Amino acid sequence: MEPLTFTRLPLWVISIAFFIGLVLAREIGKYFSDRRTSPQDADSDTFAMTSVLGLLALLIGFTFSIALSRYESRRELVVQEANAIGTTWLRLQLLDQPDRDRMAALLRHYVDARIAFGLAKTAEEESKQYQVTEALQTQYWNELMKVIAPFRDSPRAALLVTTTNDSIDLSAERFATRQAHVPPRILRFLTLFALLAAAMVGYERGTQRKATTVMFVLLTLAVTLVIDLDRPSTGITNVPQGPMFDLRDAIALPTGK
Length: 257
Hints:
The protein is mainly α. It is built from nine helices and no strands.
């Protein structure tokens, strides 16, 4: 499969296609098994099939660990960014009025944009929301530079600049992690290995269709879970945005006077 297949097609289409591929591979294996002329070595065939299935399980587990690791990284970055923006919000209290309220309003708008980014359902929407984020970052930074101009060399200015810079860096890191996926070559190799394993199962156990079909269903579910975890935008298992929602509720209140 091409990388585009794994990133663009709906998850249910990939699952059905993968399952059908396994069934067809089994039938091909059974076809050759029915037409073999040499005596069957049951022990040798069983050992080969078991070894291949074991390697397939190992490969699925390895791929799952990559996808889960990337998912955890995305989840942790949501918490880190929410904390960084929350710190920025608290340090805005160092500003005098009316600058404090003006910067607070910009920050609230920025948090809304970050939530929209996290809830993006397509890769296109994700890229669009990140462009909005970058525009708001530029606007906020420019306004901040104007506000701190009278005391830019003071510790107060350093505190405001540092936490703002951390928030910007974390937003870029979140975007990078959402763009990082399981290498397509691994997914292609996993698909090929699964089809070859299904053919060997058909060659050795082609008559046991009920049992092998159940096994193929389980394999399909496992591979589907891997691909789902690898899709931060279009997958079913999305990264929780709870910390960002909590932050939005917390900063909805007016800043102190």
